Backbone:
């Protein structure tokens, strides 16, 4: 293809139908932010929304806020909104707790729907917390199940009559490789297994159609592409056909059929509400709602098209401008099989990323050698991609990456 | 005693050494708030703190906030502060998740420390979610345990060689009756059982000395007397002698020995951090920190003295001004055995409370017939108690409570 320059990138921005969304975010002027897959940027509306919830709703209504401001409905109301982004019907998504806790809730419930089966199947490179949660559940329930881990490409072959549950992250956190949700779910069902998807790196970035692919369960993260803020509440999905059969393991009062009757014995709520546990985290939920509302304004086909275009542009610029510096594409080269990120491996990946961050280009590093760049289509510009690769080229050509301070490992990356 | 009047109450306020704390809260002018045991009031500092975390920390630092603003340390840092309020050492308290989820974590871990014992003992009138969580855990782990419920007064007699865990709420949510933590914990230990305390209605209101009474485990709530906001994160305590033996059931990545190494297998962190699960809810934690910081400024002996004085005043005014209207004290008459609330039963309790709330006196109603009044000593004045009972007297004498609109039941109370 022809040589890309900054003018070309700026022309793409000028024609970008999503360009107007960028000003809805509070982004620092000195930063090119390619880490929205780790922590999304701040929607300007979030600050007003949270200020209102704290100052007006909590401050003035106090306990009356639970009804006056419908706090009590937040997990479901916000769940229905996330359902619109992920192909779920109203009542099939709830928001609250962390992704890890929601995984525990759904895995525990799913295994009890297949009591005669003993295998939980996932891929070795799944996000670690997903695997840890399965380990903990198996250990707690007496080691009656086996966590079987295979390579991503071998998943469908590994599903068999012993498989109770297959659980996978749709878009791999390190490589960006994206599974075919429809195909794997169908294979799981064909073998009589249930399917749980982790949408942490999908919701808000790539199209997801939970009911279209007949998924049984899903979880997802509020603080990545949904821009809900650091440690935002997570969400869980269960297809309505399963609701009546779900036995909640974390059976707290908010999942009771009559939470405010204060009955001594647990009776599950009739619908998915039974999967609620403690009191809704109103302030965090409000911040997340601002992010989700903004995402709902965007056309999902345009989001995906831009996400692909940004990834393609990054790959092409790397080929044109950083060839010979030792970077190897660690994501699928087929953009249809890639989420909204692109990754390169490099033996000096850690110091290179530190040098980039020091220049204001924020991606992240994942062990052992992955440089990860995420493309949040609501606020990343084509020109940002140009500048990011331009900085990377400068860092490599000058040897700047090899400065001693860039080799120091931080405890959190 | 002599007849109490408003002047007398105002004189008590004038001499109150904690009086200055009231202006640190944003309280609506037209309300007498006696429901801080359900949702605490808004500390003015919380709004600034959260605005800073969102606007400056999240907005400007983005992903770098985890280290730059020490977000990653929040569960432990805030835990240490709550530890100072509850008699725990640094490293023995963590903040995050909900009270219900924390109960699940600790109960699951506790039962595994007493594998040969099958009874979990509590009182029938414990807060329902505590009982529900035990039910869910027992059901999940194959019904190998029995949840045995007795009356509060029979607890120590019911502890025996089969008892794995005793779990109680220190201050009863409905009656305000307060257990003797030291005595019951000693009885549990004498029988070889472990002791878990729910401090939901204690932390920030009555003195708690977890290590002084040799407690094994505890949980507590952030949104009541700690003034952390609606649905604030909860906390958990485990005595340091247990840390190395705790097997986390909700074994998420934040409890891993090296969360950012992304190892495929779970290895618990060395200390209590192993009980962390998902990503810390930074915005909610920041709001709670403002409440806890404010509480730490107050002398705990003064807090308890004022809390008792407010309860005593309420009881005396009820005797002097509302006698003959059918109210019966539903709390212990001995103020040393009462938490920071006082309750009365009345056959028309529900409409009476609605009438009070309509007049701006906010307490709450708990089925079947309890009117509950909480006294947050940081912001409730003696004059508030006068006015509250004065309104109650007016409502009873005029028959105002019997208006049809006050009999309508709301779904949330």
Residues:
């Amino acid at each position: 293809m022809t040589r890309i320059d900054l003018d070309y990138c700026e022309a793409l921005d000028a024609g970008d139908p999503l360009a107007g969304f960028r000003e809805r975010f509070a982004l620092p002027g000195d930063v090119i932010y390619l880490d929205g897959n780790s922590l999304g940027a701040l929607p300007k509306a979030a600050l007003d929304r949270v200020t209102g919830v704290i100052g007006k709703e909590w401050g003035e209504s106090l306990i009356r806020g639970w009804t006056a401001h419908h706090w009590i409905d937040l997990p479901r109301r916000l769940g229905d909104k996330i359902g619109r982004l992920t192909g779920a019907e109203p009542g099939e998504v709830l928001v609250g707790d962390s992704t890890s806790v929601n995984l525990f809730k759904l895995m525990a419930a799913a295994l009890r729907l297949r009591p005669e089966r003993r295998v939980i199947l996932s891929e070795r490179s799944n996000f670690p917390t997903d695997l840890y949660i399965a380990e903990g559940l198996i250990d707690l329930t007496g080691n009656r199940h086996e966590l079987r881990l295979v390579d991503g490409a071998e998943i469908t072959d590994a599903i068999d009559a012993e498989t109770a549950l297959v659980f996978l992250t749709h878009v791999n956190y390190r490589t960006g490789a994206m599974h075919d949700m429809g195909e794997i779910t169908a294979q799981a069902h064909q073998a009589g297994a249930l399917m749980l998807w982790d949408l942490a790196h999908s919701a808000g970035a790539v199209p997801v159609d939970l009911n279209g692919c007949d998924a049984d369960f899903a979880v997802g993260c509020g603080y990545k592409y949904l821009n809900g803020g650091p440690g935002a509440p997570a969400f869980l999905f269960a297809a309505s056909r399963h609701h009546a059969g779900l036995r909640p393991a974390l059976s707290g009062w908010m999942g009771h059929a009559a939470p405010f009757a204060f009955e001594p014995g647990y009776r599950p709520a009739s619908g998915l509400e039974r999967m609620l546990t403690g009191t809704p985290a109103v302030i965090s939920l409000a911040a997340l709602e601002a992010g989700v509302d903004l995402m709902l304004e965007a056309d999902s086909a345009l989001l995906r098209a831009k996400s692909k275009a940004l990834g393609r542009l990054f790959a092409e610029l790397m080929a044109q401008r950083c060839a010979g510096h030792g970077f190897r594409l660690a994501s699928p080269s087929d953009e249809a099989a890639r989420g909204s990120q692109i990754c390169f491996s490099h033996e000096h990946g850690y110091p290179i990323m530190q040098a980039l961050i020091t220049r204001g280009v924020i991606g992240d590093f994942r062990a052992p050698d992955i440089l990860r760049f995420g493309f949040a289509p609501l606020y990343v510009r084509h020109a940002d991609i140009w500048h990011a690769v331009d900085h990377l080229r400068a860092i490599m050509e000058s040897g700047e990456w090899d400065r001693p301070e860039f080799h120091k490992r931080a405890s959190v990356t």
About this structure: Chain A touches chain B through 94 residues (CB under 8 Å). Residues 300-321 of chain A form the longest helix (22 residues).
